[in-house]
Amino acid sequence: KRAATRGRLTTAAGAPIPNAEVTVLARPSMAGGAYAAEATVRTSATGEFAYTAAAGPGRILDFHYPGDDTYKHADDQVTLRVPAAVTIKVNRHSTRNGERVRFTGKLRGRPYPTKGKLLDLQAYYRKRWRTFATPRAGRNGKWAYKYRFEATRGTVLYKFRVRARATSDYPYELGYSKVTSVRVSGR
Which residues pair with 78 in a beta bridge? Predict the structure, then answer.
């Protein structure tokens, strides 16, 4: 989602600096991320400015005033924290013990890590979420995993989700997929 930010450019004494240009620099929240100019904004008569950051990865916004003959340069930062978004689908919602189901999905936020992104496939079991597989989302963001049910007795409705953990090579915070379910008929 987009994120609105506001600020005010003043002198050290608190007087507004009107009609000044402020450059917005952005650096992705990941190892090796570099600053790049994202936009420029202009202050009002009261020194106020506003900027709406586009939807995208977690990043640090640096609001930079270069200064002039009268005033020194100034800058301040805002950190945008964005949870990872990942989807989950199952090829069938009902199966028998001993059969396989295929889970698929996609990591939605770019840029994807060059070596892919490790995910946690979790099942809700005994009153908590437990990781039972760690599929890897490829360089296109897609992931898949096949699972065979082997120990189900009676009929059980299992709930599943995917967790994407925060890592230094992916500019997103911890995030989860929606929950999907599979009804398994056992012995």
Answer: 61
C-alpha angle 124-130-131 in degrees, rounded to nearest 5? 125
88-136 residue pLDDT tens: 999 999 999 999 999 999 999 888 998 999 999 999 988 999 999 999 9
How far apart (Å, rounded) are the C-alpha atoms in residues 163 and 134? Answer: 10
Q: What is the pTM of this model?
A: 0.83
Distance, CA of 104 to CA of 101 (rounded, Å): 10
